Amino acid sequence: KMRKDMKKRVVVIGGGLGGLFTGAILAKEGLQVTVLEKNINIGGGLQTFFRNGEEFETSMHILGGFQPGGTLDKICIYLGIAGCLDFAPDGNDCIDRVTYLCDGAEYRLPGGREAFVAYLSGRFPSEAAGIQGFVDLMYSMAAEVDIFNLRPTENFLAAHSIDFFRPIDEVMAGYVSDPRLKELLSFINPMYGGVKGHTPAYVHAIITVLYLNGQSKFRGGSRQLTKALVGVIEGHGGHVEGGCPVTSIGVGQKNVTYVETADGVRHMADVYVSAIHPCALLALLPPGTFNRTFTARLNEIPNSYSAFSAYFVMKPGMFPYLPGVNFCQRDYGTCWNLADTADGVWPLGMMYITPCDNRQGRWARKVIVNCVMEFDEVRRWEHTCLGARPKEYDEWKRGKVAQITDIMGQLYPGFGAMVEHSYSASPLTIRDYYGVKDGSLYGYRKDSCNMALSQMSVFTKVKNLMLTGQCINLHGICGVPLTAINTAEGILGLNVVVNKINEAYEKGL
């Protein structure tokens, strides 16, 4: 009787976006949640850092789904945190700008399905029918995904249309033929780690639809979302602890019996959720926990590429605040191979944004630039750790920042003179801060050539151990919370959370 009166206990390993959303949902539904995060700062990709009094985002937070009635907006209403978050809508006139250095061409892509089609049809009139058909297909594919639409489902497996799992570049080629147009319709792939001949069409469809339907930035930084999610967990009697790395996991009779942290404390629960990279999880488990086939599979799945980031503090009144995301490529034909440095040219392209301050005006204080980079570029230093890198590594980073500054100078003459300070992060930084294999930006790569290899269940063969995070289903600011719903429903029951999200939203209308 006493056991029945106790709340079911859950330990979540990892306090990033996936761990916090999963923990918040379970705590709201009455479970006793403990989240253990290895870093002092909670939040994973939502973490920020300070340099000379300036706060920087560790990621480029361009947000989709937070507009009224959007997927994330509904989830936040259900969790009771919608009013805690402050967003700066980027408007629909130009949500993304794409520039090509080879000919100086600039494309200012608007938000909204109809406006997007109309703009591209105006630039490529002979391809108008194909553009309309392709965008219609993207929306049709996105509509097939129950969880993306917060729609109750009958089971965890569903049948999909014929093009759903085909490589997106092959699907696109069936609608448009102009190489420049193909590049423009593919420009968003650095936001999900797209690879030619491998990335499934549904991944591109979901990301495209998400951002065309409404795009925004955090006003004042991403820590507000971390704080709100921690507030939900602790407000329902849970606990979130930073600087508490899990060092080992005990397993007996196909059940996790405890997780032990670096301070020697053993945390025991009824259910355990891993929100870390599956390969990092394997290192914590006793040998033989999973069979050899499954273990080999986790180690062999290709990871998405990493990135080199430059963080610039601009002199006051020198650099304009830019809405949306800005993409720059050296030439056409490079959109699908931005990580290729075989000819020694780097970067082939980049993304850059100006974060939105609390009192954002005409001028930007900071500029963040992300350039695709493979982990092999820094593998010679892979056995070093934060704060103890060799001098040659720092010199290498300064050289990369100089290359980025040069390209920014081509876009904005005199850019170097506008910069007050600059900082940088490499794939090593991403690996060590986020605990992801090879500094992968988006976790496991989804592969059309082997969907069975790259699709993972939230369930494991260890009965009370579940998975969440961007390696499992979908990645990103929208995909990870949706995966958290899948994980939570694996504990609470199918459609339990989705139905409550929709009920909360309808009640607030």
Please tell me about this protein's structure.
This protein has 509 residues and is α/β, with parallel strands linked by helices. The protein has 17 helices and 20 strands. A 7-stranded mixed beta sheet has the order 8-7-16-17-18-15-19. It has a 5-stranded parallel beta sheet with strand order 10-2-1-14-20, with helices on one face. Helix 2 runs parallel beside helix 16 and helix 3 (71-79) crosses helix 17. The radius of gyration is 22 Å and the shape is globular. The two termini are 41 Å apart.
Concise structural overview:
The chain is of the alpha/beta class and 509 residues long. The protein has helices at residues 2-5, 17-28, 71-79, 113-123, 128-144, 168-173, 179-186, 201-212, 223-235, 278-284, 292-300, 391-411, 415-418, 427-434, 451-454, 476-492, 496-508; strands at residues 9-13, 32-36, 48-51, 54-57, 63-64, 87-89, 96-100, 106-109, 215-218, 239-241, 246-252, 255-261, 266-267, 271-274, 306-314, 325-329, 349-353, 366-373, 419-425, 465-467.
